[in-house]
Amino acid sequence: MSGGPQRSATGTSGYSRRREALARQRTRLWKTLKLLRGSKMGLIGLAILIVFMLIALVTPLVIKFDKNAFSTNYFAPPSKEHWLGTDDVGRDVFAELMYGSRISLLVGITASAISVLIGGAIGIFAGFYGRYTDEGLMRFTDIFLVIPQLPFMMLIAALAGPSLINIIVVIGVLSWPSTARIVRSLVISIKERTFIERARAIGSSEAHIIRKHILPNTIPLMFANTVLIIAVAILTESTLAFLGLGDPLVISWGSMLHYAFVSLAMTNGAWWYFVPPGFCIAFVVLGFTFFGYAMDEILNPKLRRR
Amino acid sequence: MELRRYILRRAVTAVVVFLIILTFNFIIFRTIPGDPIRTLFQDPRISPEDMAALRHNFGLDKPLFDQYLIYMKNSLTGDLGKSFSYYGSPVSDIVFQRLENTLILVGSASVLSLFMGVGIGVVAAWRRNTGTDIGLLGGSLFLYSMPTFWLGMLMLFLLTGHVPSGGMYTPGMDYPNVFAQFVDLMRHLLVPMVVLTLVLFGQYVMIVRSSLIDVLSEDYIVTANAKGLADRNVLRHHAVPNAMLPLVTITAINLSFIVGGAIQTETVFSWPGVGRLMYDALLTRDYPILQGSFLIVAAVVLVANFLADITYAFLDPRVKVK
User: Fold this and answer.
1) How high is the pLDDT of residue B162?
2) Which of A38, A81, A91, B152 is in the most buried spot, having the most CB atoms within 10 Å?
């Protein structure tokens, strides 16, 4: 966000106005990237993310893996043909690890997309309409904020049954309260600015104001928030999978750790089975957290002062 | 007078939220597919008459609203139903037994992580933007990014043979005195407590650090410095007490996090608390235990939240103005 009030479009035709808006977006993006270059934390985070995204994209082209190919060669230590040894049913841990990145990223990104959609909508409506709408929506948010999340998710996931979609929905539907609050306070401050008053004066409808003026100004902050939520969602997915609530048909880092735990890999000394997935989770989460904090610091006007 | 009204309002809110959670719980169980009688008695030979009789016994033939009223009355009088396993014992008995063990683990880890978090946070803020600060902050963030259960698994792996691998007491031990029992408990508590502490303290570091940095730029700190007070004095008597306030407020978000951490730690170390109970209930699909544990944990969190709100009002006179 460029900070100051938005200048009104001077172009006459819709086309040139749109082009101007695009150009403005582009300079904004460019400025953000420039600021990001100054943040070591943000750059480290971005580098970690790019590495894992590449792994997730390239893996199916490079590594062949059959998750049903059990063998008697279980808990084999790392060797030339199995870089990270084998698991409790004799499968290659390295291949599982590479494929697991896809599930963790998929769940993290889709779940936080759901969460930001809900949180963003609630935040915008509460902030824009104020009064009873605000009061009602915020009390609703408070309830979700105090409910102990993990037990609630365990309950719902157990009842809904283990599937990837259920896990995504459960995480998405329960992670939005912080987004709603942040977006709400931003919308309240945007609402008071002159360009909104101007839009009202020339007779814009409320729907138009929300769509064209409020929403675009909340997007940068929502983006930073999404990145931070992805980190939490990935941790949550791994925890639910570890507790045995994951989809039994897909391999994720969390489900690897679940099977490592129930097959007692720790006391069997099979470190190659449970150390790598945990490191991957920690690094991806750290990557999203670093990148998210850096973006937040750049895009959140409240924090930029420091 | 103002304070009393504030407390009353908070209390009413907490009660209302709990009633809503109870209602949620009722709705969830009625929206899932499947017949509860079939789930409970997994026997295809039950005759339709017996099914109807069972349905009547459990009150499932009553209108939904009557069921809701009965459910609310039972829940509020402490009757959370009977467990599918554990020989059909009442859920509330089982959960309350386990709650004590959870409080031992969570309580000790919370106190420890609070001291560690505040100490490290103050150092980081005092030396902000130096190598020390970045190192401490980075370390705390990395610990925060780790899955709790994984940290537990690592500890189990590294310490196999040196410490007890799980549980709360050595099975079958006959203690000569209370002291010996206490020592055994401590031996079992040590590693789970350290794991939970390591996971929890990172958040405190970040909060204390940013709050203290804010406070250090306030006018009264400049005044204190100008009066010629020693740095240590300014920090201890002027800055730190005020920087502690946000610690109380964040409990709302943090409690949920602590509960999550406790469930994972208890699971890994077979600590016989509510968390491990929930994990076991997941494996056996013991739904009454699952929902009972959830309700009791939610109630405890609400009470703790309420207490935090009141503490905050006592500590910060500005709250009353609102």
Assistant:
1) 75
2) B152
Proportion of chain A above pLDDT 90, given as a percent: 16
How many residues in chain B? 322
Average pLDDT, chain A: 82
Of A58 and A10, the structure prediction assigns the larger pLDDT to: A58
- pLDDT per position as a tens digit, A130-146: 788 888 888 888 888 88
- Alpha-carbon distances, residue B224 vs A193, B217, B218, B298 (angstroms): 39, 12, 10, 44
- pLDDT band of residue B1 (cuts 50, 70, 90) is low
CA pseudo-torsion sign A164, A101, A272, B264: negative
Q: What one-character DSSP code corresponds to residue B160?
A: B
- Whether chain A has a CB inside 8 Å of the CB on B253: the answer is yes
In sequence order, the β-bridge partners of residue B90 are B82
Concatenated DSSP letters of B222-248 = HHHHHTT--HHHIIIIIIHHHHTHHHH
Q: How far apart are CA A182 and CA A199, in angstroms?
A: 24
Number of C-beta neighbours around residue B272 at 10 A: 20
Asked if B21 has any chain A CB less than 8 Å from its own CB, the reply is yes
Query: Of B4, B20, B2, B8, which Cα lies nearest the Cα of B306?
Result: B8
Give pLDDT, residue A66: 72
Question: Are B147 and A269 inside 8 Å of each other by CB?
Answer: no
- Is the pLDDT at A13 greater than 70? The verdict is no
Label residue B129 exposed, middle or buried (CB < 10 Å: 0-12, 13-18, 19+).
Answer: exposed
Position B21 scores a pLDDT of 87
Longest dimension (CA), chain A: 76
pLDDT digits (tens, 9 = 90+) for A162-201: 888 988 999 998 888 888 988 888 888 888 888 888 888 8
Distances (CA, A) of B26 to B217, B288, B303: 51, 12, 21
Q: Output the CA torsion sign for A270, A272, A275, A278.
A: negative
C-beta of residue A284 within 8 angstroms of C-beta of residue A45? no
Contact A194, A135 (CB under 8 A): no
pLDDT in tens, B161-195: 777 777 778 777 777 788 888 888 888 888 899 99
For residue B32, the chain A residues in CB contact (below 8 A) are 159-160
Our CA-based measurement puts residue A196 at a distance from the nearest CA of chain B, in whole angstroms, of 29
Write down the pLDDT at residue B252: 61
Question: Can you tell me the ipTM of this complex?
Answer: 0.84
A85 in helix, strand or coil? Answer: coil
- Please return the burial class of B161, using the count of CB atoms within 10 Å of its CB with bins 0-12, 13-18 and 19+: exposed
How far does the CA of residue B119 sit from the closest CA of chain A (Å)? 22
Sign of the C-alpha dihedral computed for residues A126, A127, A130 and A134 taken in this order: positive
Contact call for residues A163 and A220 (beta carbons, < 8 A): no
The span from the CA of A42 to the CA of B169, in Å, is 46
Q: With contact defined as beta carbons under 8 Å apart, do B191 and B167 qualify?
A: no
